[in-house]
Amino acid sequence: MSTSRRYAKSHEWIRLDGKTGYVGISDHAQKEVTDVVYVEMAKVGKAVKAGDEATTLESVKAAFSIYAPMSGTISKTNNALEGDPGLINKSPYDDGWIFAMDVSNPEELNALMTEEQYQAFLTSGAAAGHH
Amino acid sequence: MTTATTLRRSPLHEIHALSGGKFIDFYGWELPVQYTSIIDEHQATRQAAGIFDISHMGQVMIEGPGAFDFIQKLITGDLQRTFDRGLGVYGHLLLPTGGIIDDIFVYGLKESKRFFMVVNGSTHEKDVAWLRKNVTPGVTITDLENRAGFAIQGPKALGIIRDTLAGIAELPRFAFQQIQGGAPNETFWGCRTGYTGEDGAEFFGPARTIVTLWKQLLENGAAIGLKPCGLGARDTLRLEVGYPLYGHELTENRTSLEANMEWVIKWAKGDFIGRAALEKQKREGLKEILLAYELTDRGVPRQGAKLFKDGKPGGETVSGTFSPSLQKGIGLAYAPLSWNNTGTVLDVEIHGKRVPAKVVQPPFYKKGTV
To answer: Which of B218, B240, B262 is the last residue of a domain?
Structure first.
């Protein structure tokens, strides 16, 4: 279960590759959201602070905000989601990434949960009511 | 941890839990919103068959020598049809203002002067109170208890029914039959009705009998694709065929005319509560009407999404979703009467952005089996 992904309480993950962070939603979140049918492409060049809404996705059930887990500038979007938004359900940690960002403060990573901490967070019941 | 209210559970609750149902609070009932995925369940119903728990709906027996006249006075539909053709009658219960209290189905048996009314779960208590308030001599109203109900719908539904019990699959659409079954002297109802745009039937009766029948149908149908479906798929299916949902399209602040459902008003049948208000509204003309739109760009409209025409605001979405069959956003909205012309271009505000849409004639999905 070792992974370099870190998680926000709002169920986004981020994986750093140098100063570029790839962002998506957790497997738990995609199961809660169910059947993603539309992903709004985040605005490339937009500056966000950790916890800001970066974009939204829609499932059959409802709309969900996707928050930036760290501060920085949005640098890329996953355009494959335009044709197949269900990639988020099928492959939440790989093909279903949502956007990438240039992080401005790598230290913020320490405030996010590790895989083990996130799994504990999910079973603690504190996770309910976000997505 | 305690919750303020205890949710009511369907007699099928344990079966849902075993099937992986994810539960939500639906007007005080704990019901499955989905088992696997809304889209899977939606497609199962369009392509094979789906089975839906509707035990939250109210089941009311109205009996006695005065029952026929009593019901005729309360509904927009014509109960005579239930006798002449042996069909269930759909109608609205109206306030004197013409506002819609509920939409209901009545199934009647002429000889025994018994009428079985199925009402929405969200309005059940209000409806029974309304019936009792208007009751006339020679009429008995019984709000049936320990009941259950389900719908089985889809192109393969009738075949599965035929393999399980006799009679129902052979009936014409909207017809019904009271069936002996379960415990001695017990009966349940089989009705050729539904809420998905696909052929099938609805069954209502004592909880134990209905639970047994649910299990039998699933056993016989699972191999050819019958799936249990939650409220999520029930909503996308009904919206794709433009059927109204109480609390959205139908409310006490809207009339049957505004809901674009004049067909439920049987003007020839005589007087009923709300008739005068409807006549006046028809004479004076409608200001707003329920219209149907499809997004022509990407996005998913939801309840509350505002409509604009040539930049001017004017309408509001009452139901909206992503249509799994059409792969686009669809909505029903109250808007100025003059906007309701096929092809009229509108904008729908979604997350602060205006997304283009066009007015269409429902049903959105036209390939249903009914």
So the answer is: B240
Strand A72-77 and strand A47-48: the pairing is antiparallel
Q: Rounded distance, CA B216 to CA B163, Å?
A: 10
Q: Is B298 on the interface with A (CB under 8 A)?
A: yes
Q: Which tokens is A65 given? A: 């905000």
CATH number at residue B292: 2.40.30.110
Cα gap B76→B82, rounded to integer Å: 14
Tell me whether residue B323 is in a domain.
yes
> Per-residue pLDDT for chain B (370 aa), expressed as one digit of tens each?
445 568 999 999 999 999 999 999 999 999 999 999 999 999 999 999 999 999 999 999 999 999 999 999 999 999 987 777 789 999 999 999 999 999 999 998 777 788 999 999 999 999 999 999 999 999 999 999 999 999 999 999 999 999 999 899 999 999 999 888 767 778 899 999 999 999 999 999 999 999 999 999 999 999 999 999 999 999 999 999 999 999 999 999 999 999 999 999 999 999 999 999 999 999 999 999 999 999 999 999 999 999 999 999 999 999 999 999 999 999 999 999 999 999 999 999 998 999 999 999 999 999 999 9
Residue B342 one-letter amino acid:
T
Domain ranges of chain A: 6-124
Q: Which domain holds residue B224?
A: 8-55+145-240
Do B236 and B293 lie in one domain? The reply is no
Give how far A107 is from chain B: nearest CA, Å.
Answer: 32
B321 touching A, CB under 8 A?
A: yes
Q: Do B322 and A37 touch (CB under 8 A)?
A: yes
DSSP state of B307: E
**Overall CATH class of domain A6-124:** mainly beta
